[in-house]
């Protein structure tokens, strides 16, 4: 597994950074927020991103994909983290696309993946039911009826839930409430009868929703993967999502930190640049050391997706826990070191602080992943 | 690099690996595959004796094979191999639990600096003697009045025409009472600005006027000494690099020292118990988890940090091969030694009162070792540049923050 980017990957990094800086800077997110944009992202930008191949980066060529590997996706996620770019990249092109790829039958893959890859179709994963990530604690039911199923239950924190064309629903078709057995995945239209969606305005100005399924009837063809075997698909899909999010958090942490270090070199108090004060230097240097460790973790976790899936659970939890901790540390220090201006809405640092808090909760907070890592280590 | 060429290299390395494995299997005596105790470590030197016949045999075979220092030039007794081959030897030795045949500050610290800055005569004399275990070296950097502020050092060497006359003292000279030679930073120009009047000198510890006293530490050990120089005559040939340019030699050497210290936890002579192993022995479990939530949380924080540090060691190695520069090597001493201290504190917490034994009956040897290692770990974030100095270096060289 490579811990150094190759030439093609470095080229992707440069071009992604340039594209996003020119077309989707943090100011774009501010504009989406201030205009109360009903979609929550810029569809033209998403078309451009798809045109660059980002929506298809992890998909095989057979389904219209670029087949550039998960490390390539991580590079794009990291750069999009630097600019806090809102787009369906994570929910649709990473999480949902992985679920179809890993769990779908050939007909579903042929029908859905090329559309996702082209940016014409967006999906969202409807998973969470409580205010903490508990992926197997599912009370939403899928009961057989006629040729299909009836789905009932409530979902929250559905990323892109109000804007996606289709929802991938995790429901229980058997087993106890907390069991990993008995979970099933269903793909439904967001606008179908029996589905009601409430957009939630989150602190990061990005998209999430509450979704209620009220005795929603679906055909048997809506099932993705085997009935009751959804966990076998869901867990690797979540791990891919966790690693991708960790890469995004690496980008937002780097950007917030670099902006802060620049500020330390400019701001003067007591007749000196504040960056010359050892109290601040040591805190900044400590962050740099953690950034270096996190960089290695991210690269290893990204390459494990393609090259060592057996190591993915441990590495995904390592990456998400480490980056949760880093993003919290960096964004708090970034605000503190900017002083008074750090708590103004005018300065963009606050956007990084807010996005970090949401990303820290998605697919498992620090405690969740520490517990999972320890359990995988046998203690 | 095109694909076939890369495949050839990989195949060559795989062949090399299997050759190394076979050679080690055939040549490493079974007794040299057991965990080593501090008493069994062979440091070489004029007065050294091998702890056993097998240790002697093992050392001589490794020496003749050129694997004491696989990456050093063959003309001075090294193996003349590349970093990938050297890594393979290290990995295969570890896989076999093969002992380190020669422990040596000469290998870890002086050698690399001498290869970079020494003249041909110095390399011929000292590099070979280091590899052959004929000379044991001590480091003469710190002084009682010059710790973190190393460049304020006062030990002086006066130019007396055909020799230098050295007066002063050096502290934290590791095992200097058993060493043959000491490499020293000395002040050769008292009028110049701090770093600019310093030279790098090699001093034979048998020379008249050199004396050494051990210092007892909180661990109860006296590994470190203070060494005194009283009108010691040192030949001009023993100057490494240019006069008054010793600081650049010193800095290069410190890089090696910090790299060594960042890796020390994984290569300790005493048996290092992983905290998760100790947890299974000393802590109650409930439902397959450590029952004490606080200790479990600290344990997983430590394991994740070490996992990340291990991956970063791999990354720095890959970057070296690929010719990529990053800031990672500059943070490793800080994160590695801080983690080492965390590990020791965690072990004590896990072992409770069984981790507090100082000596004698009532405790197992690993328990006693754990406590002594805990005391020794406090020195890790001080020696070779304190953690605070490491942070200063990162702030200055990586972040390029303004200096006061």
Description:
The complex is a heterodimer of chains A (379) and B (404). Chain A is 51% helix and 16% strand. With 379 residues, chain A is of the alpha+beta class. Chain A is globular. By secondary structure, chain B is α+β, with helices and mostly antiparallel strands. Chain B contains 11 helices and 10 strands. Chain B has helices at 3-27, 53-65, 83-95, 105-117, 120-131, 246-263, 275-282, 293-322, 328-351, 365-380, 387-398, and strands at residues 137-140, 156-159, 163-174, 181-187, 198-204, 210-214, 224-235, 239-240, 285-286, 289-290. In chain B, strand 2 (156-159) and strand 3 (163-174) form a beta hairpin. The longest helix of chain B is centred in the last third of the chain and has 30 residues, at 293-322. The interface between A and B is large, with 39 and 45 residues. Chain B: Residues 244-399 form the Acyl-CoA dehydrogenase/oxidase C-terminal domain. Chain B: Belongs to the acyl-CoA dehydrogenase family. Chain B: One of its GO terms (cellular component) is plasma membrane. Chain B: InterPro entries: Acyl-CoA_Oxase/DH_mid-dom, Acyl-CoA_Oxase/DH_mid-dom_sf, AcylCo_DH-like_C, AcylCo_DH/oxidase_C, AcylCoA_DH/ox_N, AcylCoA_DH/ox_N_sf, AcylCoA_DH/oxidase_NM_dom_sf, Mycobact_Acyl-CoA_DH.
> What would the CATH topology of the largest domain in chain B be?
Butyryl-CoA Dehydrogenase, subunit A, domain 3
Question: What overall form of chain B do the CA principal axes indicate?
Answer: globular
The amount of helix of chain B comes to 40-55%
CATH superfamily of the largest domain in chain A: Butyryl-CoA Dehydrogenase, subunit A, domain 3
Write the layout of secondary structure elements.
The complex is a heterodimer of chains A (379) and B (404).
Chain A: H1 7-23, H2 26-34, H3 43-51, H4 70-83, H5 89-103, H6 106-117, E1 123-126, E2 141-145, E3 148-159, E4 166-172, E5 183-189, E6 195-201, E7 207-219, E8 223-224, H7 231-266, E9 268-269, E10 272-273, H8 278-307, H9 312-338, H10 349-361, H11 366-376
Parallel strand pairs in A: 1-4
Antiparallel strand pairs in A: 2-3, 3-7, 4-5, 5-8, 6-7, 9-10
Chain B: H1 3-27, H2 53-65, H3 83-95, H4 105-117, H5 120-131, E1 137-140, E2 156-159, E3 163-174, E4 181-187, E5 198-204, E6 210-214, E7 224-235, E8 239-240, H6 246-263, H7 275-282, E9 285-286, E10 289-290, H8 293-322, H9 328-351, H10 365-380, H11 387-398
Parallel strand pairs in B: 1-4
Antiparallel strand pairs in B: 2-3, 3-7, 4-5, 5-8, 6-7, 9-10
Helix pairs in contact in B: 1-3, 4-5, 4-6, 6-9, 7-9, 8-9, 9-10, 9-11
């Amino acid at each position: 597994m490579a811990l150094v980017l190759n030439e093609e990957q470095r080229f992707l990094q440069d071009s992604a950074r340039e594209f996003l800086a020119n077309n989707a800077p943090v100011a774009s997110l501010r504009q989406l927020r201030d205009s109360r944009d009903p979609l929550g992202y810029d569809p033209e930008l998403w078309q451009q991103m798809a045109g660059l191949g980002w929506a298809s980066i992890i998909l095989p060529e057979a389904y219209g994909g670029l087949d550039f590997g998960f490390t390539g996706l991580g590079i794009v996620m990291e750069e999009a983290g630097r600019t806090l770019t809102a787009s369906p990249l994570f929910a649709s092109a990473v999480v949902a696309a992985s679920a179809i790829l890993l769990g779908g039958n050939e007909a579903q893959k042929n029908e859905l993946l090329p559309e996702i890859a082209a940016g014409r179709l967006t999906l969202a994963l409807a998973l969470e039911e409580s205010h903490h990530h508990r992926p197997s604690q599912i009370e939403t039911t899928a009961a057989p009826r006629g040729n299909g199923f009836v789905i009932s239950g409530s979902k929250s924190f559905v990323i892109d839930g109000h804007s996606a064309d289709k929802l991938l629903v995790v429901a229980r078709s058997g087993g106890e409430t907390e069991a990993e057995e008995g979970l099933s995945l269903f793909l439904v239209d967001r606008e179908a009868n029996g589905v009601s969606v409430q957009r939630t305005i989150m602190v990061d100005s990005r998209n999430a929703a509450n979704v209620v399924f009220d005795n929603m009837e679906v055909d048997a063809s809506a099932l993705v993967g085997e009935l009751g075997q959804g966990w076998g698909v869901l867990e690797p899909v979540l791990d891919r999502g966790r690693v991708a999010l960790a890469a995004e958090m690496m980008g937002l942490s780097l950007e917030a930190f670099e902006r802060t270090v620049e500020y330390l070199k400019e701001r003067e108090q007591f007749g000196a640049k504040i960056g010359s004060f050892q109290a601040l230097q040591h805190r900044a240097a400590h962050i740099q050391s953690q950034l270096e460790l996190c960089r290695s973790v991210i690269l290893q976790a990204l390459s494990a997706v393609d090259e060592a899936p057996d190591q993915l659970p441990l590495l995904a939890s390592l990456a998400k826990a480490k980056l949760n901790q880093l993003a919290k540390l960096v964004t708090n220090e970034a605000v503190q070191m900017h002083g008074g201006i750090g708590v103004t809405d005018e300065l963009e640092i606050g956007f990084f602080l807010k996005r970090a808090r949401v990303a820290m909760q998605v697919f498992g907070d620090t405690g969740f992943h520490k517990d999972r890592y320890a359990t995988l280590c046998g203690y | 690099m095109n694909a076939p060429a890369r495949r050839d290299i990989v195949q060559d390395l795989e062949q090399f690996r299997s050759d190394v494995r076979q050679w080690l299997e055939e040549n490493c005596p079974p007794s040299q595959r057991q965990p080593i105790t501090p008493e069994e470590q062979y440091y070489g030197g004029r007065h050294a004796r091998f702890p056993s016949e097998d240790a002697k045999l093992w050392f001589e075979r490794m020496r003749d094979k050129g694997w004491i220092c696989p990456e050093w030039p063959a003309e001075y007794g090294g193996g003349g191999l590349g970093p990938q081959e050297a890594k393979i030897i290290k990995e295969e030795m570890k896989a076999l639990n093969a002992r380190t045949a020669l422990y040596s500050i000469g290998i870890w610290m002086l050698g690399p600096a001498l290869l970079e800055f020494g003249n041909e005569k110095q390399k011929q004399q000292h590099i070979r003697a280091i590899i052959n275990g004929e000379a044991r070296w001590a480091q003469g950097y710190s002084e009682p009045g010059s710790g973190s502020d190393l460049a304020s050092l006062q030990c002086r060497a006066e130019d007396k025409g055909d020799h230098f006359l050295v007066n002063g003292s050096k502290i934290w000279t590791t095992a200097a009472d058993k060493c043959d030679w000491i490499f020293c930073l000395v002040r050769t120009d008292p009028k110049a600005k701090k770093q600019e009047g310093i030279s790098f000198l090699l001093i034979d510890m048998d020379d008249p006027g050199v004396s050494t006293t051990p210092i007892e530490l909180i661990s109860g050990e006296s590994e470190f000494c203070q060494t005194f120089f009283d009108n010691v005559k040192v030949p001009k040939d023993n100057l490494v690099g240019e006069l008054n340019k010793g600081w650049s030699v010193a800095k290069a050497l410190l890089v090696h020292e910090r790299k060594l210290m960042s890796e020390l936890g994984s290569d300790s002579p005493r048996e290092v118990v992983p905290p998760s192993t100790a947890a299974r022995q000393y802590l109650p479990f409930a439902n397959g988890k450590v029952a004490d939530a606080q200790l479990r949380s600290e344990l997983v924080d430590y394991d994740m940090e070490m996992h990340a540090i291990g991956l970063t060691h791999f990354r720095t190695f890959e970057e070296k091969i690929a010719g990529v520069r990053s800031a990672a090597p500059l943070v490793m001493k800080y994160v590695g030694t801080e983690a080492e201290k965390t590990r020791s504190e965690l072990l004590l917490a896990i072992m409770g009162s069984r981790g507090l034994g100082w000596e004698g009956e009532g405790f197992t040897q690993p328990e006693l070792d754990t406590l002594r290692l805990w005391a020794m770990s406090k020195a890790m974030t001080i020696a070779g540049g304190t953690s605070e100095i490491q942070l200063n270096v990162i702030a200055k060289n990586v972040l390029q923050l303004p200096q006061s």
